[in-house]
Amino acid sequence: MNGPWVEKYRPQTLDEIVGQDHIIQRLKRYVVEGSMPNLMFTGPAGVGKTTTALALAKTVLGEYWRQNFLELNASDARGIDTVRKDIKNFCRLKSVGAPFRLIFLDEVDNMTKDAQHALRREMEMYTKTSSFILSCNYSSKIIDPIQSRCAIFRFTPIKGHQIIKRLKKIADSENIQTTPSALESIVYFAEGDMRRAVNILQASSTIDKEITEESVHEVVSKAKPRDVRKIINKALEGNFMEARDQLREVMVVQGTSGEDMITQIYQEVSKMAMEGLIEEDAYVDLIENIGKFDYRIREGSNPRIQLEALLTKFLLKGKE
Ligand SMILES: Nc1ncnc2c1ncn2[C@@H]1O[C@H](COP(=O)(O)OP(=O)(O)OP(=O)(O)O)[C@@H](O)[C@H]1O
Ligand SMILES: [Mg+2]
Fold first, then answer.
1. What is the pTM of this model?
2. Mean of the pLDDT values across residues 89-96?
3. For 146, which of 33, 134, 274, 282 is 20 to 30 Å away at the CA?
4. Which one of the ligands is nearest to 155 CA?
5. How far is the CA of 194 from the centre of ligand 1 (A)?
């Protein structure tokens, strides 16, 4: 193996980025115009925010992009003052061989409000020479004065068929075989996160020459969807003790965490409702309960007790 595939297969150009089409189109206009406002990239993990920032930098700054590009992490262990000092030192210098300088600041939602206000002042001070790209998972955590100074780009989870296409391409380059069900199950576990999908693919490839659904399940510490459905069905039939035993077994064998388990129960119940296997009234009631128990688990209650208590809410809710 030669290093992480997420780096090896990180798209280098805007055209290579999967999904996010309308974002890429808007960004290409800046390339043509040769100027750029401050940008804010928001969205879930592993969908291409950092990748897009790097590809954009290379495209707008051209040959000398390295000299004119500064990448910083707002939650840098050395503290926010160091980050601001780095910004100041960088912005003070004029751009060389490029139209302007570009600062990419990652994880801005981890900055305190005070630090964000200071950042906003810096953004104003250097508008003539530099553009900022701020990246965060939640734009709601960013103060309004910064939001209003940025063009906001909302990145979305990557669609299943797009993940599959990308994984196939990577598998081809690495000369490995994959079964269709293996790819489907990577999509299921990745939940729209391309980084996670590529990481699962790489980890699975160390198990066998051909990646199967089984090898995927071996590397993912989550329950198999069909096991989750079995547990739910047992409970819906009113068979509590068997549902409980299966829940325990799955969690021990796969090492599934309480948080992951309840998310998977939610996914499976929703699927079952869509397939018409659970009545709407029952579904509404179950979702309300899943929400309640999910909160308790995340607040630190014993996950096994909470999950078993949740199962009691399923009893006899199945369709006749
Ligand atoms: N849209 C995409 N197209 C192709 N590959 C992608 C895409 N998004 C993510 N990847 C893969 O996942 C890796 C991580 O992506 P990236 O660093 O851009 O995620 P991010 O959105 O910045 O996530 P975070 O919020 O965790 O910082 C990339 O190196 C690449 O291999
Ligand atoms: Mg990132």
1. 0.85
2. 86
3. 33
4. 1
5. 6
